[in-house]
Amino acid sequence: MTELAGLSIAIFDQLLKLGEKTAQIISDARSFNDDTEQYYNKIVDENNRTKQLRHILFEPSPIYGGLTLFENFDDDVQQQIKVFLGRLVHMLKEALDLLESRYGNNEAAKKPSMTTSLSSLSLTSSRSSQEARSPSPRSWKHYSRQSISLLKWSLQDKKRTEEVLKDFSDLNGRIHENIKLWCLASSIGLNMQHLKRLQNDENAKQLGFDIDATLQITATEVGRMDFSFELSSAWLECLRRATPVEERFALVQEDGKTFLMEHRRYDGQPDVAGEIDSRTRIRINDLAGLLSQPKEKVFCIPRCVGWKYVQSQSDIAFLFETPQGCIPEPVSLYRLLDMKTVKLTLGQRFKLASALAKCITQLQMVKWVHESFRSENILFFPSASKKCIGSDSDEPCIDYGDPCVLGFEFTRPEIDFSAGFADLSLERDVYRHPERQGRPGRMFTKIHDVYALGVVLLEIGLWQRAITLEKNQFRTARDPFVIQAQLLKQAQRRLGDKMGEKYQQVVIACLTGEFGVQNDTREDLKLQQAFRTQVVDVLERASSCL
């Protein structure tokens, strides 16, 4: 283990030296291309991230028994980090070799301008300029070696350098996200001192680890919150006057601001004071506390400002902030799927699918489960400034890569036991794993949220509500696995033609739960990594190309 740690530190150091040298060459090559500053800044940023990760992983601490965080990871994780770093070194070395082949042995002052047009390049032979202008055909051997080298760089090497630098940045980003996953989702993520280190360490803050660490600390401490997130009675009147939005939501106006209200039916018996029972109160307050925490945008979850029991309507209302710069006229994915006038481009569908997959993986990382992930709980707010491209009307534009995920009636920390309430609604059962339909017979796990995501991705790909994918809307389905089989059949028969083979494979993997994982850890760490690789990364790469 010590040898592997030493080797990984050495690779980190090599990566830092390569990064500094690459940045220096780009800085000197001021005519590298029009985006020289962009590439220079990118390499500097990636180098800073490398330094911060090195500090997090290899700074000995009493928290880890005098060892480093790296040494507290399992052997498998340590090996993966070493392999990832090796790939980074290889990529950056290729970019450096390409740059040095053009600039490495020249002084900056002698470097010709790369912005010079091809017509003015020194593509002349060593003969006179008059002879160079001769219309007679000439052989490449008559041109100077410097001229040919410059043309080769312009037409080939420059493009490859740009590609390598982009791939390097993308891979470094994936390594960053994987290390965050190992820090939070592995067994070390149960160590409260470790989480507080990520919460307070300056390097961890620069990497964004502190936000997710805080979420996990809050989830771990759920049930022990002293703070009440219940709204004051002054909110009751505006809650009663809320403007309905579809079936589950409403808009609330208060003090010149617009809030989104999600209401949940309270079927319990109020106490003598007309309030909800104490057990439900604790559960609701804990949930509001979790949802009120600051979260990265990738969670797709708006911030909750509190909750209130509206006795006259027997509803428990959750209040959320609405996105800035948007028109407060939300529409659900469920409704959009039924609107014949709405047709998303391939790029829009992939961006939406990618955003939702990232949402699920973020919830998994901080040890949350959703339990009610379905299209009616996915909302979009039209932009207040952007207009639809290609539209003659002033219709507001919806950014389908920026959904709001709600439906938090049962959302909870993974460590909390699922109540397992019976729900016989086919409209909702179609999104549930067969093990969770009707009266659940098994505790809710990560794979059940993955299944629900698969159903929603199938809807997006076919642009059709899941309940309509069977002619009788599954009313004759006696076995929960019949619904799963029908959804799989639809994905296998129709999805490839509409969305491509990669998207089809993603959906089938989610619906079957087959990610090639064996001998997983107690925290389902291997499943989470496989889900990132086979679903999140695939959708993200595809969406970035469209």
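The record above closes out task 2.4. Task 2.5 opens with a second protein, given below.
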Amino acid sequence: MNYIKKILKFALPYKRFAILNIIANVFYALFGTLAMVSLMPMINILFNETEKSYTKPSFETLGDYFNKENIIEYFNFFVTNKLEVDGPSATLALMVIIIISLFLLKNFFNYMGLYYITYLRNGMLKDLRNKIYEKTLRLPIAFFSEKRKGDIIARISGDVNEVQNSFLSILELIVKEPLTIIFAIIAMFLTSVELTIFVFLFIPISGFIISAIGKQLKKHSENVQKEQGIFLSTLEETLGGMKIIKGFNSETNFISKFNQSTYRFFQFSNQLAHRQNLASPTSEFLGIVTIAVLLWFGGSMVLIDKTLSGGAFIGFMALAYQILTPAKAISKAAYSVKRGNAAAERVLEILETKSPLDDKPNALVKEHFEKEIKLSNVSFKYDDELVLKNFSITVPKGKSIALVGQSGSGKSTIANLVTRFYDVTEGSITVDGEDIRNMTKHSLRNLVGLVTQDSILFNDTIKNNISIGKENATDDEVIEALKVANAWEFVKNLPLGIHTNIGDSGNKLSGGQKQRLSIARAVLKSPPIMVLDEATSALDTESERLVQVALENMMKNRTSIIIAHRLSTIQNADEIVVLHKGKIVEQGTHQDLIAKKGVYNKLVDMQSFE
């Protein structure tokens, strides 16, 4: 299983917990076996079958301590002396205490094993989720055009859980259950072949107690479920707002937000798991205490009252103490590993996906925009058909270029290429003569402000939405950006002002209000280059007028690429480029193109008629 090696690297930071888990499982198996072995001398005492011995054996060499005959002889000497000095009742009581102590130690180490593996399990889960989330943010936009949001969410939640469970099953398969079986078989063969047969024929009865206690633990899962909803919501918003996050270089901010949520989930999961892990050893120990009481009274009936047959008591004890079924656990673990294989493949598919947009080694960090943006013979295709064909324009610093044309003509594609959400198929895009493919994406996007047709906002306060591109912005800076964006007039009347939560996707606001907040976000970032992708096309006339004023305020002294559907918004552009099926068909100022009475003039007439 090759995937195990790849998943195991996430366990390395928690290897100390794995070692402690293995140590605890060794002691669990050892004391579990000793607890079972201690029942046989008890039975011998009950039925007065202990061989009388009045001579204490000598242990002169190390081998004497591991000699079966010496051990049995010493035990017989101890029991004989105890029976004659204290009587059968006191001897029986001592044996009961020994048995309870052994089962207590067994369950203590069982709990400790589960305690340590909880940190390994939830730590792996946290790190794996964080890594997938970070990788998701680093992948190009093109990756998500081929994947559904639900599928991504399923991989980061359900599939990661399945991988985690599979890994745990392997750990239990290798250490805990086999050791329990091996220790038990060796001990039983050394004592009685018949007892070994009882081990394999045992029907576990403690499962009913464990199940009953487990049902009462449901209330503790509330925090875990709630936090899971929070980080899944963050993930969904991330996938929906990918352009804004990337365009404003806010990947680090969102990664931090997601990591904080998964850390809280990690803590809540540990608390819940400790309670769940305590259920099994506690219920077993309580069951053993109950049986020990029965042993006291039943033993008295056998040794003193003589009212219970030895055969019936032996059968009862065998059924009562054979609780664990490690063979069944191994079978379940093997099945879980098979299920985890498919889940691991889906998780690793994301983690191992190579991004074609990764920065080159020693990529240029571009800090200032000085001269021009130039698109030279750019061709681009999403699938097979070219969307842009030998497209060339130059945008000098401080000038505004408007791109118009019918839907599907390639206007928005240019915005995606300039911000390097995609790479050109042919040709080049340069900033001050430097190919953007040779620059770091972070530095390129620091130079660009993006306002999209869809106002992508997050379920947070107005301030936090606007300050995505400038996380340390003061309240005064946010308010000034809102004034430039013509948005302060409605924000100041909100109950908490800039600290008002605007709901999921900003749905507490109107379309025009949301768009003006998007503009304020770009204003606060204060980039030298603005890309406006049909920023007013989804607005009514009144909202459009307000937004248009905001856009004009924002574009002052800035280099702008304006993608417009409504031509009334771009009449003051320094140059208008008319596209048709990915090619430039007209180019000039508004007055020049009207005078030509060509494609642009027809588009204006059509919108005027509308």
